[in-house]
Design brief:
heterodimer; A: mainly alpha; MetI-like fold; globular; B: 350 residues; alpha+beta; OB fold (Dihydrolipoamide Acetyltransferase, E2P); 2 domains; five-stranded antiparallel β-sheet
Chain lengths: 279, 350
């Protein structure tokens, strides 16, 4: 059967007017080019100023080695802490019906947008010698977190944890709940379900979340210097060392910066599969 | 040894209110349209959904009784489930999928894998032990899911739309496998489906579910003869005969023959839509290949359509328009000639 549709209007609508503006193309190219230069020029300048001959000696100077040691120790510890504490937080946020979850989610996300120095001040007020918890810890156990290596770890955990929580929350939400149900009907306890069904599904996100955490912890500056100070060998991390070196020996600062740049670049390359999906 | 279930629960604005009893070695097919509450029923039996009220007991053991405050979580119920979308673990191989439940019961990896291998052998997939679900065909995945559910030796087997995931070509073969698997399972068997063919071929007894309530229960024959709702009337649009097909002739239980398409051979089901059975006052001649004399047993008006229950060889339900029936001027008890084209009979292996 053919259906005849009668058009009430006898004249067809005019075709869309295509106006190709050369100005638009030029403007976009110009602004875009400027934007790209903004990234490229500083990075290129850094590479150009690297004293390649002295690189090895600068990297092995006692001060650089100390900073490297503190940085690695603290960032790794902070990452482990983020995993141990962040995974349960993500679970609570996605899998329970606890009231006030949206508020909790906002609080855990806050450190991403909060100026790190504010985080440092908040940590001081909580765990400093005169802090709400800090005084208690000091008096009861003799634990002083501020201006100690543990303080660095705490500051780094504070700023890095949201990266793990957010990544894992997303993975837990998109994980197949039906598989978890199937596992339960087969006799799997909640813990077994998590270990054998949920964990394999969220493993890639857990891994990339941990790497992001580590990268954020490694680059941490503001909260660390505010809460833990800048004591060489104890709380002076690589970024702090770079900042200090800039005053005394700019060459050392450039070499340490190069090291941090190399680390960031390799993380970017290593995780490109996870991020490519979002592009 | 039975399942006794009084189930009352609400899920959003949907309510389920169902009483079910299933004996050992009995296959009950719960049939109903989408949204009738079939899945909720299955989930409640498996423990994935708590009852609001009622009582659920399997072989004397209480699984759920809100009034008494007792609830057995799914992992502690002796229940095997084959889900509609199978839900095989994608990261595990076929043998590890089957071994999953055994490992949960504390068996060592070696012993669990050994038993799982036996199950794979039993479902004819010993050579696919190392394959991951994505590498399995629909039928193979179905059999792995069945083996996984049976490997833990449950007392009750729940199947959710077991054939719907397969393409039509695979269904006849899988239906036979499924039937065999069900028959060899010694416990309570419950199939949930919206597909009448699946329900009629697999179920010893049917429970028709609509809007969370049981509208009819009975053997397939009972349900076919007297549909008690629009939904049942619609899907009962199939007369089922069982017989032996050979070169285009179907010998039906009861000792008469029908001319059928030559596609099938051996033990078969023959499905006949009531609409394809024509009625005549005198013996028709010409194209229809099957004609026989029968008696009008009863009449049932369904809107403008009359369902005519015919007694004869075979006894069938015919559907004619009220107008056509008026032209024939027939009444209950009258003799009438029925005719049926061979091509209108759908024959599939039993």
């Amino acid at each position: 059967m053919t259906v005849v549709v009668q058009s009430p209007a006898t004249t067809p609508p005019p075709p869309p007017r295509v106006r190709r503006s050369r100005w638009l193309t030029v403007t976009v190219a110009l602004l875009g080019g400027l934007g790209l230069l903004l990234f490229a020029v500083p990075l290129a300048s850094l590479l150009l100023r690297v004293p390649w001959a002295d690189t090895a000696s600068q990297l092995t100077s006692p001060q650089a080695l100390d900073a490297l040691r503190v940085s690695l120790l603290c960032s790794v510890c902070a990452t482990v802490l983020c995993l141990v504490l962040g995974l349960p937080v993500a679970w609570i946020l996605t899998r329970t019906r606890m009231p006030g979850r949206s508020v909790l989610r906002a609080i855990t996300t806050l450190p991403v947008v909060l100026p790190p120095v504010v985080g440092g001040v908040a940590l001081l007020l909580a765990f400093g010698r005169e802090g709400v918890l800090g005084r208690f810890l000091d008096e009861a156990f003799g634990i002083r977190l501020a201006f100690s290596t543990s303080g660095v770890i705490l500051a780094e955990t504070f700023v890095a944890m949201p990266f793990l929580v957010l990544t894992v929350c997303g993975a837990l939400q998109s994980a197949d709940r039906q598989l978890e149900e199937a596992a339960r009907t087969l006799g799997a306890s909640p813990w077994t379900v998590f270990r054998r069904v949920t964990l394999p599904q969220i493993r890639p996100s857990l891994l990339s979340g941990a790497v992001l955490c580590w990268a954020r912890a490694l680059g941490e500056f503001g909260a660390t210097i505010t809460f833990a100070g800048n004591l060489p060998g104890t709380t002076q991390t690589l970024p702090l060392a770079v900042y200090v070196a800039l005053e005394q020996s700019p060459e050392a600062a450039v070499v340490l910066s190069l090291l941090l740049l190399a680390v960031s670049l390799s993380i970017l390359i290593g995780l490109r599969k996870q991020w490519a999906a979002g592009l | 040894m039975t399942l006794t279930a009084r189930m009352r629960l609400t899920n959003g604005n949907f309510g389920l209110d169902v009483d079910i009893e299933v004996a050992d070695r009995e296959t009950v097919a719960v049939l109903g349209p989408n949204g009738a509450g079939k899945s909720t029923l299955l989930r409640a039996l498996a423990g994935l959904h708590r009852l609001g009220a009622g009582r659920l007991a399997l072989n004397g053991r209480v699984l759920d009784d809100p009034a008494a405050g007792s609830f057995v979580p799914p992992e502690c119920r002796p229940v095997g489930v084959v889900f509609q979308n199978l839900r095989l673990f994608p990261n595990l191989t076929a043998v590890d999928n089957v071994a999953f439940g055994l490992r949960c019961r504390g068996l060592s990896r070696r012993e669990a894998n050994q038993r799982a291998a036996t199950w794979l052998d039993r479902v004819g997939l010993a050579d696919r032990a190392g394959a991951r679900p994505a590498e399995l065909s629909g039928g193979q995945a179905q059999r792995i899911a069945m083996a996984r559910a049976l490997a833990v030796a449950p007392e009750m087997l729940l199947l959710d739309e077991p054939l719907s995931a397969l393409d039509v070509g695979m269904r006849a073969e899988m239906r036979r496998d499924l039937q065999r698997a069900l028959e060899s399972f010694p416990g309570v068997r419950l199939v949930v489906t919206h597909d009448p063919t699946e329900a009629f071929t697999l179920g010893d007894r049917l429970i028709i579910l609509e809007e969370g309530r049981v509208v009819q229960t009975g053997t397939p024959a009972e349900v076919t003869a007297r549909p008690r709702s629009q939904y049942v009337a619609q899907f009962v649009g199939i007369n089922l005969l069982r017989g032996w097909a050979d070169r285009g002739r179907l010998t039906v239980e009861g000792g008469f023959e029908l001319v059928v398409p030559e596609t099938a051979h051996g033990e078969v089901w023959a499905g006949i839509r009531p609409r394809s059975v024509a009625l005549h006052r005198t013996r028709p001649d010409g194209s229809p290949r099957n004609t026989w004399l029968c008696r009008i047993e009863s009449l049932d008006v369904e809107r403008e359509v009359l369902r005519v229950v015919l007694a004869g060889k075979p006894s069938l339900v015919a559907e004619v328009t009220a107008e056509a029936f008026a032209d024939l001027a027939l009444r209950t008890g009258d003799a009438v000639w029925a005719s049926l084209k061979a091509t209108e009979i759908e024959v599939f292996p039993a």
